[in-house]
Amino acid sequence: MPPLTGFPTVTPAVIIKLNVTNANPHGIIHTGSTFTHFDCPSGTIESAEGFSPAFKAQVNFGADWCTFDADKEHGRLNLKVVARTDEGASISLDYNGVIRMDEAAWKVFTMQPDAKTMAFGAATGSCRFVVGDEKLKALENNVFAGNGRIIVGENGLVAESRLCQIVPSTDMD
User: Fold this and answer.
1) Which residues pair with 129 in a beta bridge?
2) Is the pTM value of this prediction over 0.90?
3) Per residue in 69-116, pLDDT tens?
């Protein structure tokens, strides 16, 4: 069998850390899924070491309109975040993902006192950026995907996502 060609590669690009402060359950929606809105009012978005353009931004608004499938096996993340870089430029991002739900994940998402930090591997997603500075335009002009976890800490929950830039293949079949 010939080798597979034409697949993209990835480059570590962006780390997002959001403080999750409130869960606002809204109940079952028309699809049979359960809808919960999570407030994420602060945090950081920054480039991974070696990624260009390099930046660091403080989150000043964020929220996840999360739905959980009727069979309780997966959650659907629909995250929107607005941030400002240390230089004053605005960054907006939309993150959509899927999380595999198990007993440990349910404890985190229902903010149970015995919840534990979730490892990377249960959640994957993709992200789209809109930027307010020409120096960051590469964020708009590329595709990003990654995985996430939830850190359970003394001061509450932190949602962390590590995104990679999808680098297109230049192979010719």
Assistant:
1) 93
2) yes
3) 999 999 999 999 999 999 999 999 999 999 999 999 999 999 899 999
In contact, 120 and 149? CB cutoff 8 Å: yes
H-assigned helices in the chain: 103-109, 137-140
The set of residues, in sequence order, having a beta carbon less than 8 Å from that of 98 and lying 6+ positions away, is 74, 75, 76, 77, 123, 124, 125
- Could you tell me how many helices (H) and strands (E) the chain has, helices first? 2, 10
Q: Choose among 166, 143, 168: nearest CA to 10.
A: 166
3-state secondary structure 39-82: ECCEEEEEECCCCCCCCEEEEEEEEEEEEECCCCCEEEEEEEEE
